[in-house]
Amino acid sequence: MQKSVGQPHDPHLDLAVGTYNIIWTVISGDKFQWDDPFLHKLIVSLATNLEAVELVGVHNYVLIFS
Predict the structure, then answer these.
(1) Which of 8, 32, 40, 54 fits a disulfide with 36 by CB distance 3.0 to 4.6 angstroms?
(2) What is the reported pTM?
(3) DSSP-assigned states of every residue in the chain
(4) How confident is the model at residue 26 (pLDDT cuts 50, 70, 90)?
């Protein structure tokens, strides 16, 4: 966040990386690096999927993949 002093900053990615790191550390005992491209892709993919669920509803979203 210090890199964006004086500029607008969306903390979503920072908070998501921290949250995923905590969960992953508990599960596997390992940690992701803050700039890990796989972790960032995972976060973006999850956000995209959650937006799709919000648009069409959970029931319709599940039917699409059935």
Answers:
(1) 32
(2) 0.59
(3) -GGGTTS---THHHHHHHHHHHHHHHHHS----TT-HHHHHHHHHHHHHHHHHHHH-HHHHHHHH-
(4) very high
Of the listed ranges 26-30, 50-54, 62-66, the one predicted with least confidence:
62-66
d(CA 60, CA 30): 36
* pLDDT surpassing 70 at residue 59: no
Token reading at 66: 């059935």
Distance CA 56, CA 14 (A): 28
**Residue type, position 25, single letter:** T
